[in-house]
Amino acid sequence: MPGLTMSAAINQALREEMRRDARVLILGQDVGRFGGAFLVTRGLIDEFGEERVRDMPISEAAIIGCAVGAAMMGWRPVAEMQYSDFVASGFDQIANQAAKIHLMSGGKAKVPLVLRLPIGAIEHGAQHDQCPEAWFLHTPGLKVAIPSTPADARGLLKTAVRDEHPVVFCEHKALYGTKSVGGRSGDEPIAQAEASPDELDQDGGLIPFGVADIKRAGADVTVVATALMVHRALEAAEQLAADGISIEVVDPRTLVPLDLDTILGSVEKTGRAVVVTEDARTGGSGAEIAALISEEGFSSLDHPVIRLGGADVPLPFSGPVQQALLPSVADIVHACERTVRS
Amino acid sequence: MVALTASQRAEDLAAAGPDLLRVMLRIRHFEESLYRLFMSGNMPGTMHQAIGQEAVAAGVGLALRPDDLMTSTHRGHGHAIAKGLPLTSLMAELFGRSTGSSGGFGGSLHIFDLERGFLGSTGIVGAGVPIAVGAALTAKLGGSDRVVATFFGDGAANQGAVHEALNLAAIWQLPVVFVCENNRYAVSMPFARAFAVEHVADRAAGYGMPGLTIDGNDALVVLDAARTAVARARAGEGPTLIECDTYRYKGHSRFEPAKYRPDGELEMWMNRDPIDRLRAELLTGSVLPAERLDAIQQDVEHEVAAAIEYARSSPMADPAVAMAMAFTTRGRSCRD
Q1: In terms of CATH architecture, what is A213-341?
Q2: For residue B44, what pLDDT is reported?
Q3: Which of A307, B111, B147, B271 could form a disulfide with A290 if both were Cys (CB 3.0 to 4.6 A apart)?
Q4: CATH of domain A6-201
């Protein structure tokens, strides 16, 4: 999707799904006229009105709980947390209610909600910069999507809205303004979707869950990365190519379900694996992927799996300090070299 | 406290008294049978019993239409019975059988029956209240006139999620009836130590909705208050908070002996037993003769006995069915 920022791509996905299905609702703080904290829902209220694009009080438990109740009645609520960190204030409703109602009802009740979470470090501090995807990965009953590009974000979000189970949708804040892979610009205008009704009847661009994307093909080292780290991995791959090391970058795109076959297939080819995620390393999403590779791909490995992740401390606010505590391009380059040369 | 006029009371007694009594007896006998099964080691899991609180469930249940909705609490057997769940699937659920209302995967704390508008009991105190508000939002947006009743206890009234939900229902004028079962204790915490106001319903003013405190051991009063609140909600006039003063005879859960209660308190409340009171009133009001009342009691005993038999003869829940609900990675189960 040339020209669209990730914000605009998500906005377009919401617009298309709201046009397609009158049961799709948007719930959250400042999502209406204000357009959302990151302007992702900008303009939707003009087309769909304040009944379907609902500004809510600062009540995370009620925002998510309301989405649970609406979803149980067959509607398709998309709830937004202003920052993913704030989900902690409404955690019971996603982790104990949304995730478990399907099982607790013997499979009879369904909770088709989407919970959009802006994740990632952007110099706001320890309570605004987390990557909490592992909280949800570790909660059976939830699906977890974590796109790295505008096209993936649009396609996965459309799938999420149509899924009959709860989806936690992690959007990296530093990627909202990205026009294309690798670029970063925070001030891009949000493009308005101008798709015709005919186009909207089509399912073009939908991306199924549990299908990883090979963002760059290579032969020597498999780098499994998510969200912003996909872009750092691609940059590292570019640098390593100059040294004659060929990197394959695998983006799982969804953590639950996880496309283990593609990851293992890549490791079988390269014999080396580096897993890079931004969330805290201990018990993080990368830990699970690294464990699965070690468990199921051990015979393919020429070197132990290397796992790069955020430091196990709350994240300080300032940019240089933050970045020192998160995986860098240089960290990824170094890790890949270790797997090849040691 | 809200009271009924004598003429309204006589009219309701004749029209609804027998139905209320039957529902209350069904709940009482169901719960007492569970207690015996539990005490004798024949019931798995855990449970929280509503013996003594039957009038609240029965009165609210009778005020609703079958297509109206309800969310419940951890003490939810009575609510489910009042919403019309069959005793068979309810009992089978408590026994962990595949014929249970949740296929034997939910248990006492997680009763669901969407076909009957029962959106679930919950193991998390207060969690059903925001869910009720979400369901009410879809009723309003979808142009239906369905109403949602949501139960919660005095303990839950101090949960943040309940506060958020009350505010939301009020600002959006949603068709919700908030029913607080004030049974005086949040596990062991007495009401007076957990509230700086005299009544939970005093807080309704802070949300901008009507609030009333009623005798929750008087089924006719509960029915009347619930009908008024349901009619308001159905007419698009918004939510109501009804606080029902009541008492649980048993401890918080299972064998918990409730020793934190002062001597004589239980006896005082048992003297205000909701079933005894309605039964006596039906007799003195000549609505039903004693033999008809006894016949209702016998019917209910047979129903519960049949439900226990049904549950015990049903197959256990199948772990493979639960595993099939896992979200698998592509081509393999998360466990393989």
Answers
A1: 3-Layer(aba) Sandwich (3.40)
A2: 87
A3: A307
A4: 3.40.50.970
